[in-house]
């Protein structure tokens, strides 16, 4: 497998979504639908990325893992284990629920999956937007439970302003929510286990209140997790997330700067959040990666590209 891989997006309706993915990236979304998530790279039973072009066109990511695991992910990767990362665009026109993902131990107990994720702010509404991650200093489990009953849980959580280029790593067990006006690139463990603490009295697309999981949430929240800080936008390249599950590097590239990876190192995911990359001929792209695009560079493939203008590329690695 010598070619890099691009996939067709899988769009998901969400009650808090909108149409910003269409305008930001020049895409055509399904007519009349409220799209909150675009799953860009996914290997799950309920959703599969399909290769868009090149020799592997039409094949799913799950098929490639099962039949070419060594070439895709390296010689140690078992063919019966799913691709470990899920990449999404989130269009948050309304506030998301206050929620938590289970840490590994609680996930085993509750029948869920752990989920650590990173949010990169690609755009915000005019004047900025907000995120909620973690607890305010001094909040206890007893105080939090009391606040749920009294419907003042917002008093217990850590909310802060964000701007384009900011990011934050959200570990399993951290209570969190995304405020309205955020367009976010979410890079996460391959998981879809979410326990809602509250949903602000909202109803779902079917007109009914969405299910809450207060009992499960209380088992999963880290009660000593106080006021984590985001990584603020910077004019230079840097590591913006580094955890057991993955590492993300934010590369700031000027016109003519080159980006290259040798074959046989490790698989990587490239996400273009601004600017464009001219990919050297020989790969399945034979063209450009532009804002909103993603590419999976297999273990067995090399990669060479040149920045066509000033831009920012996220490189996700160390996930195998």
UniProtKB/TrEMBL annotation:
<dbReference type="InterPro" id="IPR014628">
    <property type="entry name" value="Man6P_isomerase_Firm_short"/>
</dbReference>
<feature type="active site">
    <location>
        <position position="196"/>
    </location>
</feature>
<dbReference type="InterPro" id="IPR046457">
    <property type="entry name" value="PMI_typeI_cat"/>
</dbReference>
<dbReference type="InterPro" id="IPR014710">
    <property type="entry name" value="RmlC-like_jellyroll"/>
</dbReference>
<protein>
    <submittedName>
        <fullName>Mannose-6-phosphate isomerase</fullName>
    </submittedName>
</protein>
<dbReference type="InterPro" id="IPR011051">
    <property type="entry name" value="RmlC_Cupin_sf"/>
</dbReference>
<dbReference type="GO" id="GO:0008270">
    <property type="term" value="F:zinc ion binding"/>
</dbReference>
<feature type="binding site">
    <location>
        <position position="117"/>
    </location>
    <ligand>
        <name>Zn(2+)</name>
    </ligand>
</feature>
<dbReference type="InterPro" id="IPR051804">
    <property type="entry name" value="Carb_Metab_Reg_Kinase/Isom"/>
</dbReference>
<keyword id="KW-0479">Metal-binding</keyword>
<feature type="binding site">
    <location>
        <position position="176"/>
    </location>
    <ligand>
        <name>Zn(2+)</name>
    </ligand>
</feature>
<feature type="domain" description="Phosphomannose isomerase type I catalytic">
    <location>
        <begin position="4"/>
        <end position="126"/>
    </location>
</feature>
<keyword id="KW-0413">Isomerase</keyword>
<dbReference type="GO" id="GO:0005975">
    <property type="term" value="P:carbohydrate metabolic process"/>
</dbReference>
<feature type="binding site">
    <location>
        <position position="101"/>
    </location>
    <ligand>
        <name>Zn(2+)</name>
    </ligand>
</feature>
<keyword id="KW-0862">Zinc</keyword>
<dbReference type="GO" id="GO:0004476">
    <property type="term" value="F:mannose-6-phosphate isomerase activity"/>
</dbReference>
<dbReference type="Pfam" id="PF20511">
    <property type="entry name" value="PMI_typeI_cat"/>
</dbReference>
């Amino acid at each position: 497998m010598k070619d890099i891989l691009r996939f067709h997006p899988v769009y998901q309706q969400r009650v808090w979504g909108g149409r910003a993915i269409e305008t930001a990236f020049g895409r055509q979304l399904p007519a009349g639908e409220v799209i909150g998530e675009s799953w860009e790279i996914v290997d799950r039973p309920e959703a599969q990325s399909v290769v868009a072009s090149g020799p592997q066109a039409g094949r799913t990511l799950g098929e490639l893992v099962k039949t070419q695991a060594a070439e895709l992910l390296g010689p140690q990767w078992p063919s019966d284990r799913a691709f470990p990362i899920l990449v999404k665009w989130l269009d948050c026109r309304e506030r998301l629920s206050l929620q938590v993902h289970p840490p590994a131990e609680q996930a085993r107990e509750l029948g869920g999956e752990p989920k650590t994720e990173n949010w990169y702010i690609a755009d915000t509404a005019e004047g900025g937007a907000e995120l909620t991650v973690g607890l305010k200093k001094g909040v206890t489990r007893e105080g939090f439970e009391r606040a749920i009953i009294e419907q003042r849980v917002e008093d217990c959580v850590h909310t802060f302003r964000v701007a384009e280029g900011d990011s934050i790593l959200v570990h399993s067990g951290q209570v969190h929510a995304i405020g309205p006006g955020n367009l976010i690139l979410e890079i996460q463990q391959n998981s879809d286990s979410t326990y809602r603490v509250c949903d602000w009295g909202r109803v779902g697309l079917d007109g009914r209140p969405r299910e809450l999981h207060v009992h499960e949430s209380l088992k999963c929240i880290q009660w000593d997790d106080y006021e984590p800080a985001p990584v603020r936008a910077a004019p230079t390249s840097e590591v913006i997330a580094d955890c057991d599950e993955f590492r993300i590097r934010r590369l700031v590239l000027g016109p003519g700067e080159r980006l290259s990876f040798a074959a046989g190192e490790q698989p990587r995911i490239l996400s273009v959040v601004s600017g464009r990359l001219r990919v050297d001929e020989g790969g399945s792209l034979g063209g450009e990666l532009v804002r909103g695009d993603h590419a999976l560079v297999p273990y067995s493939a090399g990669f060479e590209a040149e920045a066509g203008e000033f831009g920012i590329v996220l490189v996700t690695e160390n996930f195998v």
